[in-house]
Design a protein that fits this description.
Layout (H helix, E strand, L loop, with lengths): L8 E6 L3 E2 L18 E8 L4 E9 L7 E3 L1 E6 L12 E2 L8 E3 L4 E3 L3 E5 L4 E8 L7 E3 L6 E5 L12 E3 L2 E2 L1 E7 L5 E7 L1 H4 L11 H9 L4 E7 L14 H10 L4 E7 L2 H5 L14 H17 L3 E5 L10 H14 L6 E3 L1 H5 E2 L2 E5 L13 H10 L2 H5 L4
Parallel strand pairs: 17-18, 17-19, 19-20, 20-21
Antiparallel strand pairs: 1-16, 2-12, 3-11, 3-13, 4-9, 4-10, 4-16, 5-8, 6-7, 6-11, 12-15, 13-14, 22-23
Helix pairs in contact: 2-8, 3-5
């Protein structure tokens, strides 16, 4: 984003847009079939604060233009409530109502709103015309409130329905302190926060933000549950979305990459029943592409080893996981975060430590997410790239 006098815009919250799916993936999208004359209110916890804010909405996977009747941002109260006096209606190119073209995003004009670091804001969007939700983030871990009619200005929304998916909301910018930087975490459900408590902000990037905000650094979560490095099943593969989700973020300094478990684990299961396992060389070539692309933009890149995945376990898949982890530790990344060593049970190395496990033997729970964030060396994250 270009800067003008007194402006230093930094992304303070992010959700990777995903396309919806059909029968090819065995989970419900948790979306209404259609929206028409309805208000969506979504909550987002930012990292860095500021005195002005902008909101980006996305129609990247839309099948037709998305008409925004009105939109607003406010400080969050409890539940669907907003703080009295904090609601700010948004304009887009000085228009309150705008159509987002197919495949496009729109960025709001700046509005004055004093937002504290690590606080929550509520974004309300009124959809005045019929639309089919197609651009969303499935595992938002945050309640989205949907009500019939236009409730942009209401303090409280009496929701007709709720979901834990978000829709159309892509990014929130703040006019941050000078010289602010950004760390992006990109990966799959482990980064996205699957099994983290809903509405509690207990994903590991949330806990990492608690540590980095005093360093004037925002943390963006670019995880997609079900995501993979090399190919699509649910969400777009990391190689395809790396520029959008990481390298195009303003003033990004470092990216943390933890991806590959689903590439190894999904083949032969209900998620990808006809697929064969990828070769270790194919995964390594993918990681090397991420490294090359990050270094071409002078972005530091941290590689995370793949943690135990008992739900996916076979001897062949476990052997491949170990091969990949051995390469990740080999030194081609700028630094390595050894998540495998942190999370595995020393008595059963193919399993999580019980204190780390959410109970599904694949994802950390809240306590495990906190351990991940606390184990990351801030000097490792913030050092200049070699």
């Amino acid at each position: 984003m270009s800067k003008h006098a007194g402006e230093d815009w930094i992304a303070s919250w992010y959700a990777s847009p995903e396309p919806t799916w059909g029968d090819e993936f065995p989970f419900l999208t948790n979306l209404p079939e259609k929206l028409n004359n309805q208000t969506i209110r979504q909550v987002a916890r930012i990292s860095l604060g500021g005195q002005r804010v902008r909101v980006e909405l996305s129609n990247e996977y839309g099948k037709r233009p998305l008409v925004i009747g009105e939109a607003a941002i406010a400080l969050t109260g409890t539940g669907s409530k907003i703080v009295q006096g904090s609601n700010r209606k948004l304009a887009f190119s000085r228009k309150r109502s705008i159509a987002i073209p197919i495949g496009a995003t729109i960025l709001s004009d700046p509005v004055e709103l004093d937002i504290d670091p690590l606080s929550s804001v509520s974004i309300s969007v009124f959809l005045s015309e019929e639309t089919e939700p197609t651009t969303f983030h499935w595992d938002a871990r945050q309640t989205t409130y949907i009500a019939n009619g236009n409730h942009i200005s209401d303090i409280d929304i009496d929701a007709d329905t709720t979901t834990v998916a978000s829709m159309y909301l892509k990014r929130i910018f703040v006019d941050a302190p000078m010289n602010a930087g950004t760390v992006v975490a990109i990966g799959d459900s482990l980064t996205d926060g699957a099994s983290a408590t809903v509405d509690a902000n207990t994903r590991w990037p949330n806990f990492l933000a608690n540590r980095l905000v005093p360093q004037n650094v925002s943390v963006l979560n670019a995880g997609i549950s079900g995501g993979r490095l090399l190919s699509n099943v649910k969400g777009i593969n990391v190689l395809a979305r790396f520029d959008r989700d990481v390298l195009n973020q303003p003033n990004v300094k470092t990216v943390i990459v933890i991806i590959g478990s689903n590439d190894i684990g999904m083949p032969g299961m209900a998620f990808a029943p006809t697929e064969s396992l990828p070769a270790a060389d194919a995964l390594i070539a993918g990681y090397r592409q991420l490294i090359a692309r990050a270094h071409a933009r002078n972005v530091r890149i941290i590689g995370g080893t793949l943690p135990p995945f008992q739900m996916y376990y076979t001897e062949v898949k476990e052997k491949l996981r170990q091969q990949v982890n051995e390469w990740i530790r080999s030194g081609e990344f700028d630094a390595v975060f050894d998540l495998d060593a942190l999370s595995r049970d020393p008595d059963h190395p193919s399993r999580f430590l019980p204190v780390f496990d959410s109970g599904d033997h694949l994802h950390p729970g809240d306590a495990g997410n906190k351990r991940i964030a606390e184990a990351m060396d801030l000097d490792m994250l913030l050092a200049d790239r070699k």
